[in-house]
Automatic annotation (TrEMBL):
Catalytic activity entry: Cleaves type-1 transmembrane domains using a catalytic dyad composed of serine and histidine that are contributed by different transmembrane domains
Name used for this protein in its record: rhomboid protease
InterPro entries: Peptidase_S54_rhomboid_dom (IPR022764), Peptidase_S54_rhomboid_met (IPR017213), Rhomboid-like_sf (IPR035952), Rhomboid_IM_Serine_Proteases (IPR051739)
Top-level taxon of the source organism: Eukaryota
Molecular function terms from GO: serine-type endopeptidase activity
Topological relation to the membrane, as annotated: Multi-pass membrane protein
Domain Peptidase S54 rhomboid: 98-243
Predominant location category: membrane
Subcellular location per the Swiss-Prot or TrEMBL entry: Membrane
PANTHER family (alphabetical): PROTEIN RHOMBOID-RELATED, RHOMBOID-RELATED PROTEIN
Length: 276
């Protein structure tokens, strides 16, 4: 089959050509929705080569899925809210705060398939396009900053609960996307719609977590603090590390404010855990 692309006849039955065409269309769409300036969009669409590929989000997603399957087989079953491997060496536990790896590695565990599904879905739909635009290093920084903020925030403000899941990192990605929209709002496609969508998704999930924490009589202690502190980390670190394609002088001030806020919060939480 032949179709006309830019005035030329192209054979779409060629598998390699079909893959290249699909990749180019996806890259063009991502550039259209995530970049502000038309010149940046064109340059991104023409120059993006998938080298290096956006491996961070894919890798972390597959890792979390693999751990869930492993503990599923170990526990002998799965439910919307379980199993929760409370004896795992990765889970964050307030009685084992001296094992500092738990402040980060709790992200590989999840409390049930609903928890896992939401996190993996957001990671792929939001995190992967962000990684393709901003690069793996920047998005990994945002994600891990959210994970760390989630555990540190929980250790300070909700110190009696165990913590599993990548919600801190996921909310950091959502907030980073929000930061991306705010930085380039005037030129973003459907900027208002994106802001509303992010706020609706985030507030709904946090609302459910708060309900499970305080109202639902059969629910275990679900920490919503990790969601909020992860979002704060994503918003601040997102303003710092994401590419701003139209930086102005006042945004440099915002950069320093964001760095100061995140640094002060992390330092306070670390000192709190050391002396309490």
């Amino acid at each position: 089959m032949f179709v006309s692309i830019l005035g030329s006849d192209v054979n779409t039955t060629d598998p390699k050509l079909s893959v290249d065409t699909c990749l180019h269309a996806m890259v063009k769409a991502i550039g259209h929705h995530f970049l502000a300036d038309e010149r940046d969009r064109k340059y991104y669409a023409d120059s993006y080569s998938c080298r290096p590929p956006p491996l961070f989000i894919v890798t972390i997603t597959l890792t979390e899925l693999a751990f869930f399957i492993f503990y599923w087989t170990q526990e002998g079953g799965v439910s919307p809210s379980g199993p929760v491997p409370v004896d795992s060496m990765f889970i964050y536990r307030p009685d084992k705060r001296s094992e500092i790896w738990r402040f980060v590695l709790y992200l590989v565990l999840h409390a049930g398939w609903v928890h896992l599904f939401f996190n993996l879905l957001v990671q792929m739909l939001v995190g992967l396009p962000l990684e393709m635009v901003h690069g793996s290093t920047r998005i990994a920084t945002v994600y891990m900053a959210g994970v760390l903020a989630g555990s540190l925030g929980t250790s300070v403000f909700d110190s009696d609960v165990y913590l599993v899941g990548a919600s801190g990192g996921v909310y950091a990605l959502l907030a980073a996307h929000l930061a991306n929209v705010l930085l380039n709002y005037n030129h973003m496609v459907s900027g208002t719609l994106r802001l509303v969508a992010v706020l609706v998704v985030a507030s709904t999930d946090v609302g459910i977590a708060i309900y499970d924490r305080y109202v639902h009589p059969n629910a275990g202690p679900v920490s919503y603090v990790a969601h909020l502190t992860g979002a704060l980390a994503g918003l601040t670190i997102g303003l710092i590390v994401l590419k701003n394609f139209e930086q102005k002088l006042h945004e440099q001030l915002i950069w320093w404010i964001a760095l100061g806020v995140y640094g002060a919060c992390v330092l306070f939480a670390i000192l709190y855990n050391i002396f309490n």
